[in-house]
Design a protein that fits this description.
It comes from Albidovulum sediminicola. The protein is an all-alpha fold. It has helices spanning 2-32, 34-37, 42-74, 81-92, 108-145. The chain is elongated, with a radius of gyration of 19 Å.
């Protein structure tokens, strides 16, 4: 049990770290293009920020799923990488089909993967909202100054 908790905690921290670094990278991207983003026309640029942020989030979720999948596969829990990715995706997104289960001695990892996915979804939703809010407020501020 303690090995599962330690391993699950390490995987959760790794996944959150990857998401944090990716968020930092996205923030750097926004800062670099800030002057262009706040110029008219605003709506197409907001749509572009939303699209890029959504793709960025998709990449972070994919990275989190692969972190779990590779760990489960390396532990020999699943024979194929496809089964490992499938289970990780179903657990990480908290979908929980239940058609593929972890062996009894590793079942705590399933709940930890789901908790990790839930945490990441919340963080990534906050990232989307914050990115759009920041750009929109900057656009409004620049417009007021004129």
């Amino acid at each position: 049990m303690f090995i599962q908790i330690a391993l699950g905690t390490a995987l959760m921290l790794c996944s959150v770290l990857v998401s944090g670094l990716a968020f930092w990278g996205f923030e750097v991207l926004l800062v670099r293009h800030h002057d262009w983003l706040v110029k008219e026309p605003h709506r197409p640029k907001l749509a572009l920020v939303l699209a890029v942020a959504a793709l960025w989030v998709l990449g972070m979720v994919t990275a989190g799923v692969w972190i779990w999948a590779l760990a489960l596969w390396a532990l020999g829990i699943f024979i194929t990488i496809e089964a490992s990715v499938y289970f990780s995706l179903v657990a990480f997104t908290t979908l929980g089909f239940g058609d593929i289960l972890l062996p009894h001695q590793w079942r705590l990892l399933g709940g930890m993967a789901a908790a990790n996915g839930l945490l990441n979804m919340g963080l990534l939703t906050a990232m989307l909202v914050e990115a759009l809010r920041h750009i929109r407020l900057s656009q409004i501020e620049v417009k007021r100054r004129r």
